[in-house]
Amino acid sequence: MHGAGNDYIYVNAMEYPIADPVSAAIAWSDRHKGIGSDGLVLIDKSPVPEADYSMRIFNADGSEAMMCGNASRCIGKYLYETTHPWPLPVMEGNGYQETQIRLLTLSGVKTLHLHIVEGIVESVTVDMGEPVLEDESQFIASRDIKRGVFVSMGNPHYVVFTDNVDQVGETGSMLEHHPAFPQRCNIEFAHVEDNGNIRTRVWERGSGITQACGTGACATAVAAALTGRAGRTSQIVMDGGTLTIEWRESDNHVYMTGPAEFVFDGEIEAGFALNDK
Fold first, then answer.
1. What does each C-alpha distance from 163 to 14, 185, 237, 273 come to in angstroms?
2. Which of 25, 180, 246, 274 could form a disulfide with 40 if both were Cys (CB 3.0 to 4.6 A apart)?
3. What is the DSSP string of 166-206?
4. Residue 275 gets which letter from DSSP?
5. Catalytic: 74?
6. Contact 250, 275 (CB under 8 A)
7. Would you give the distance in Å from CA 150 to the centre of its chain?
8. Catalytic one among 68, 74, 185, 218?
């Protein structure tokens, strides 16, 4: 599945638990020798009553991520469209239906609002929670990089506003591994266009350049609002598509809305034994 081009392999761990997800993520994510993806996502039952389901996400290099907005939207679509009968309540709206899923991630429980038309999840709004702002990364990386803004959306992001977003391939890796980020960091290069949209390219920690990043879009929108470049609602235009981000004043939460799409499904046999159910 993919969300705005950010593609992951999804495994229903409730039926097919993976014993070694790190090795599976590395092997299966290889775009030349495996299935090809930005990483591996496991969908499972929640071990706590505060959530309905849980997710674990492993980057293409096998490192485990704390949160992924694009993946969470895809999980919502997958669960609703493949679970029969649907166990959670569905609310009727003006010509559409909506249901909610509480998803446990390593950065806490996120609420997914699924927007449904004729039984199909057309888009998902994710309550990403409150952004965390820190000053630790207010540095100038080089003569060509302006001072950036550090925003945590459950995972760390460093947003650099620049006229040259295509430098992501040249400097993304360097910034990910900069000494200012002992745990490494996701890097966004953003430019506010004349129409108010924010063109953004992203270097994801552990995956490199990706088509989109949900938490990165949220961090970019927050950074733009903080620096007076945009208001509380922004259209973040990434390589794979556009996400709508609202940093709501009423609760200080960031809400991300965007699509989720199936690409294909199938079976794979590899040397990664399933856990005993």
1. 46, 21, 15, 48
2. 25
3. GGHHHHHHHHHT-TT-TT--EEEEEEE-TTS-EEEEEEETT
4. P
5. no
6. no
7. 17
8. 68
Give Cα separations from 219 to 181, 187, 198, 249, 256 (angstroms).
Answer: 16, 10, 12, 16, 11
Q: Which residues pair with 9 in a beta bridge?
A: 40
Collapsed DSSP state (helix, strand, coil) of residue 63:
coil
218 counts as catalytic: no
pLDDT digit string, tens, across residues 157-197: 999 999 999 999 988 998 999 887 888 999 999 999 999 99
Helix (H) or strand (E) holding 23: helix 21-29
Q: CA separation (Å) from 182 to 2, 34, 105, 152, 175?
A: 30, 30, 22, 14, 11
Q: Which two tokens stand for residue 40?
A: 């591996």
Q: What band does 143 get if pLDDT is binned at 50, 70 and 90?
A: very low
pTM of the model: 0.89
Cα separation, 91 vs 73, whole angstroms: 18
Catalytic, out of 74, 185, 213, 218? 213
